[in-house]
Every structure is written in structure tokens, then in C-alpha cells.
Specification:
Fumarylacetoacetate hydrolase, domain 2; eight-stranded mixed sheet; SH3 type barrels
């Protein structure tokens, strides 16, 4: 007999689908994505082991019922709009259907064959319709490194940085799914030794290791959010690479901040890991000094013990180079604080909003989450396996970010977000 009282996060849960302990997608995870197969339209599914579970089919067959058809759609937005109670109930139901001791799907061979498709045989799409994209700047280590680089050690952090999560509005239109090629951007360039700017391809193309917060509930224009309200609005998280044109940015960002240097591409992983699946890995972030103003104070652990690794496979190389190995737990400003701050002016949040954490760097040299830091703005090139060096990305280079939380005998992972640089279009 099965034990329905077990929580979907219980480490003892097992699926009738065998999963390797190193798999990103055990039964304790159940991340949402959008997939298609040859001749079929995109629809919502769940990753489990090396398979994707077709939620549109289970909904049509009556095995999953959320009160209306939401999964036979090319994004997760309609399901997110149903709210946290529906999210929790649906995750519990899917967990039940996939358990090793539950016969409903396990023993229905015909349905199982139609509903469980090998990941190798499907095409993965952007999992949500991005309503708006905001990128933050919330790693103290990253902000300090960049500040030292350009302003000196005594003036590394701007006066406002310790008082609020600094952010800017990016472009939702250029958020793309992992695997999408990234065209080298063009823009105005003005090296220090040039009298006037010129226009041409970026010469200092960079990655930014980030996590993305997927907002699943709206907030009212003119209102504010408490910590509990902001937390409840977060549906889940994705890996995020906010590609950056450092030389374009250096010339354009004064006085209004990044614009074209960050507008050409933002890559996200195809799987949205739910906030509920990450619950066992919550912990307290760094002590915030000075104490934030009352509307930004948080009283619960809002950071996550989430390992993040970055590899670069240089153009023509047979093996990748490890660039960075860090952790989401180092973030000074949490995702909840970012959302609270975003809404504090009265800004209305929308289902499908995406918030980038900002570059995630740690205290050690090998924990720097961008090439700007790794090469110290090009002054310290790093060696590649098999020869050659890099300071910034070259055409043909492939950048891959992976992330996971390690449980007891299982891991809750995100898969990967990958992009290859190609010449300007």
C-alpha cells in the first residue's frame, strides 16, 4: 500500500521511473517545462529522470484536474495564474502518480507509453511567456569586484548599494531558451584612447551567472508587498545567463544605466524548478549591515544552498574549461527582497515577470561569476585546456551553466542553460 501522507519533498520517496542519484530530476523535484514532439504543438510537461511527463495528456485523460484546461498551451502562464493552492495540489498529485507504490499510471502500460516521453526525443521551448524582465545587482562580492576594478578599493560600493537591491528594466523580448545561438551584438564603442565613438561588433562579450525568479501571481498597481506576500508570489526559479557587452556598456551606461549592452539576449534554462521543491535547501543569507529599512526587512531564511558551475568550451576545443564554481547562498539581497523592492513604489507585478538575481560571485577567486571578474577586465587572461587563452568570449565559444541543490541521496537540479556565440546577424 502507498502512503499518501508523505510530502512531495520527502527524501524517502521513490518513483517507478528509475533515476540515478546524480540525476537533476528525481521525484522530489518535478520541474515544469514546455516541450513538443515531431508534428505536435508545444505543451506543458514535467521532467522526471530521463523522461518528460505530458501534463496536457494527463489533463485530457482526467488524471490531473486543476479546474480547467491549462496544460495544452505553449507556456506555463495559465497554470501559474491559478495560484499557490493549485500549485501545491498539482505537485502533490503528480508526485502521487509517479510514486513506485501507486498503480494508477504505473500499471496502465498504454497510457504510460503515451505520457512518458524520452527527453532525448523532445524539443524544449521557452517555458513561460515573459511579461517583463528586471535584472538586479545583488551579489556583494560581484559589486565589490567591479567597483574595485573601476573606482578603486575605497569607493567600491556606491552609497545606495547596501540600502536597496539595485536593478534595471531589461528586455523581455530577447529572453531565449537554452540552446539558442547568441549573435554577437553591435553598438557604439569608445576605447579610452579614442577621441570619438565608432559603431561595430562588441569586442568584450561576457556571460553573467544568475538565477531567475519566475513570478506566478500579480500584485496591484499602487500597492506594496510584505515578505509573506512576495514569497507566495514566486512560482519558481530558472538558471539565467544575462549576456553582457562590456565595451558597449562602459560607453553607454552613464547616466541612466545599461541599455543595449544588456538587451540583445538573456538565456534561461528550459525547466522551472518550483519554490516548493527548493524548500528543504533554504538558509539564511549574509548578515545585512546596515539593517534594511522596514519595508525590506525579512524574518525568514530566503537564500538557498544551490551549487552553480560554469564551463566554457572554446571554439574548436574538444573539452570544456571550468570557469566558476559558486553558490546562490552568497547573495546579499534575496529574491524576496528584490520582489518587495520592485513593488514598493507601487509598481504592479504580473504573471510571467522574470527577475534576474544579478551576477552571482562568491568570496574565492574561482567563484567569480563573469569573465569581467575572472580576467579582471582583460588584464589577466586565463589559459584554456589544450592551449590558447581567453579574456572575453569569442565566436564559436559555448558557455554552459549548471545548478543543483544536493539532498540526502538525491539532488534537485535545473539541467543546464547553454549558448554558443555566433557572428553578428
Amino acid at each position: 500500500m502507498h502512503s499518501p501522507e508523505l510530502h512531495p519533498n520527502d527524501p524517502s520517496l521513490r518513483s517507478f521511473i528509475a533515476t540515478d542519484p546524480a540525476s537533476d530530476f528525481p521525484i522530489q523535484n518535478l520541474p515544469y517545462g514546455v516541450f513538443s514532439t515531431a508534428g505536435t504543438p508545444p505543451r506543458v510537461g514535467i521532467a522526471i529522470g530521463t523522461f518528460v511527463l505530458d501534463l496536457a495528456l494527463l489533463e485530457a485523460e482526467g488524471l490531473v484536474d486543476v479546474g480547467g484546461p491549462v496544460f495544452a498551451q505553449p507556456s506555463i502562464n495559465a497554470f501559474m495564474a491559478l495560484g499557490p493552492k493549485a500549485w501545491t495540489a498539482t505537485r502533490a498529485r503528480i508526485s502521487q502518480l509517479l510514486r513506485h507504490d501507486h498503480p494508477e499510471l504505473r500499471d496502465n502500460a498504454g497510457l504510460r507509453q503515451r505520457a512518458l516521453l524520452p527527453l532525448a526525443d523532445v524539443t524544449l521551448h521557452l517555458p513561460l511567456q515573459v511579461a517583463g524582465f528586471t535584472d538586479f545587482y545583488s551579489s556583494k562580492e560581484h559589486a565589490s569586484n567591479v567597483g574595485v576594478m573601476f573606482r578603486g578599493k575605497d569607493n567600491a560600493l556606491q552609497p545606495n548599494w547596501l540600502h536597496m537591491p539595485i536593478g534595471y528594466n531589461g528586455r523581455a523580448s530577447t529572453v531565449v531558451v537554452s540552446g539558442t545561438e547568441v549573435h554577437r551584438p553591435r553598438g557604439q564603442l569608445k576605447p579610452a584612447d579614442a577621441a570619438v565613438p565608432s559603431f561595430g561588433p562588441c569586442r568584450r562579450l561576457d556571460f553573467e551567472l544568475e538565477m531567475g525568479v519566475v513570478v506566478g501571481q500579480p500584485s496591484a498597481i499602487g500597492g506594496m508587498l510584505t515578505e509573506a506576500q512576495a514569497e507566495a508570489m514566486i512560482f519558481g526559479f530558472v538558471l539565467l545567463n544575462d549576456w553582457s557587452a562590456r565595451d558597449i556598456q562602459q560607453w553607454e551606461y552613464v547616466p541612466l544605466g545599461p541599455f543595449l549592452a544588456k538587451a540583445f539576449a538573456t538565456s534561461i534554462s528550459p525547466w522551472i524548478v518550483t519554490r516548493e521543491a527548493l524548500e528543504p535547501f533554504r538558509l539564511n543569507g549574509p548578515v545585512q549591515d546596515p539593517v534594511p529599512l522596514p519595508h525590506l526587512q525579512q524574518h525568514s531564511a530566503q537564500n538557498y544552498d544551490l551549487q552553480l558551475d560554469v564551463d566554457l568550451r572554446a571554439s574548436g576545443a574538444s573539452e570544456p574549461a571550468a570557469l566558476c564554481s559558486t553558490n546562490f547562498k552568497y547573495m546579499y539581497w534575496s529574491s524576496v527582497q528584490q520582489l518587495m523592492h520592485h513593488a514598493s513604489s507601487g509598481c504592479a507585478m504580473t504573471v510571467g515577470d522574470l527577475l534576474g538575481s544579478g551576477t552571482i560571485s562568491g568570496p574565492a577567486r574561482d567563484q567569480r561569476g563573469s569573465l569581467l571578474e575572472i580576467s579582471w577586465n582583460g588584464a589577466e587572461p586565463f589559459d584554456l585546456p589544450g592551449g590558447g587563452q581567453r579574456t572575453f568570449l569569442e565566436d564559436g565559444d559555448t558557455l554552459t551553466i549548471r545548478g543543483w541543490c544536493q539532498g540526502d541521496g538525491y539532488r534537485v537540479g535545473f539541467g543546464a542553460v547553454e549558448g554558443t556565440i555566433v557572428p553578428p546577424n
